[in-house]
Design brief:
globular; four-stranded mixed β-sheet; alpha+beta; binds flavin-adenine dinucleotide
Length: 317
């Protein structure tokens, strides 16, 4: 399937644009689950000024969605109408600052931030070693692991709003809670400043190795997955509820519930996005009827289904 090509109109409207616009770009290639349709337009801004220029000059009703490394995304089979923005090289700067601080662009992979902090003797960021996203996604999701999360280490973030204005957000304005930020959904994070403490590089690198080894042993990190599918309900674990409801190994089409960690869904046999979403909704329905608990998706589902097909809970009705 493909969308109408908006690139010629956008290029005409934005003569000063320096980044790359491309029509009908497959998103399956750049997301972990490897499913879903194309982006109507994929825009890779050259830098923050280019991104701001783009946002300031496009039509107010053109849908805009930003993605990071696609490790927490399920793109539906019909693709993403409008513009998908992916930050690249122009947002990949990383630099240690005085006072055990480190500043990173939104496209820096979390693991790279952990390594740079370790090498600069900044402790407290080793947990990022195991999270396969980039800084923008970590800010939006308040990503965390091993007892720490982004809000424990963040000083401030910078974001561009839909009019192209840049905002500096201190931690208190980020409204971070469990796998959520209350910053308006259309704001795009471009940079973050993190606070660590003094540490010995060798000890931090050893801690990062422990994080990596734990992942290797306990999570299907070499599979096509979106990580934890559902948030842990207060006071309990999603995986335990899923296991108790008999869903370990459950399959829909090319998608299955991981045997190793049953809060992970896996695309192991050429699944469609619909297979994965239907599997997730089947798990939710079974957990609801077994334990009475409603699981909330942690994976962010974006885009439209194949024409006429249902989405969400309607997939299991
Ligand atoms: C194997 C595996 C293990 C995982 N383990 C963990 C874990 O331990 N802890 C954890 O918290 N998560 C984990 N995840 C989930 C995922 O890695 C995190 O949610 C990560 O922060 C997502 O970052 P991303 O760059 O991939 O974002 P994407 O998946 O591309 O996007 C996720 C959300 O962030 C938004 N977003 C992305 N970039 C920006 C930006 N620049 N500005 C504004 N919004 C943006 C997107 O619009 C979307 O809503 C895991 C995933 C996998 C596949």
């Amino acid at each position: 399937m493909s969308f109408a090509d908006l690139v010629p109109d956008l290029a005409a409207r934005l003569p000063g644009l320096r980044g790359r616009l491309a029509a009908n770009q497959p998103l399956a290639d750049i997301t972990w689950l490897r499913v879903g349709g194309p982006a109507q337009v994929l825009f890779t801004p050259a830098d923050a000024a280019d991104l701001a220029y783009f946002l300031a000059h496009i039509a107010a009703d053109l849908p805009v969605t930003v993605i990071g490394l696609g490790s927490n995304l399920l793109v539906r089979d019909g693709g993403m109408p409008g513009v998908v923005i992916r930050l690249g090289r122009g947002f990949a700067q990383i630099a240690a600052e005085p006072g055990h601080r480190i500043r990173a662009g939104a496209a820096v992979p979390d693991a790279k931030l952990a390594r740079a902090a370790a090498e600069a003797g900044i402790a407290g960021l080793a947990f990022y070693r195991g999270i396969p996203g980039a800084i923008g996604g970590a800010l939006r999701m308040n990503a965390g692991a091993h007892g720490r999360e982004t809000r424990d280490v963040l000083v401030e973030a910078r974001a561009v709003d839909r009019t192209g204005a840049i905002h500096v957000l201190p931690l208190s304005d980020m409204k971070l809670s469990y796998r959520h930020s209350g910053v308006p959904a259309e704001w795009i994070f471009i940079e973050a400043l993190f606070q660590g403490s003094a540490g010995d590089p060798a000890a931090i690198l050893a801690e990062m190795d422990e994080v990596a080894n734990y992942r290797e042993a306990n999570q299907p990190i070499r599979e096509r997955t979106g990580g934890s599918t559902f948030k842990n309900p207060p006071g309990s674990s999603a995986w335990k509820l899923i296991d108790a409801a008999g869903c370990r190994g459950l399959r829909v089409g090319g998608a299955k519930v991981s045997e190793m960690h049953c809060n992970f869904l896996i695309n192991d046999r050429n699944a469609s996005a619909e297979d994965i979403e239907r599997l997730g909704e089947t798990v939710r329905a079974r957990v609801k009827s077994h334990s009475g608990t409603t699981l909330d998706w942690e994976i962010i589902r974006i885009g439209v289904p194949r024409e006429g097909n249902p989405t969400g809970e309607a997939l299991v009705r």
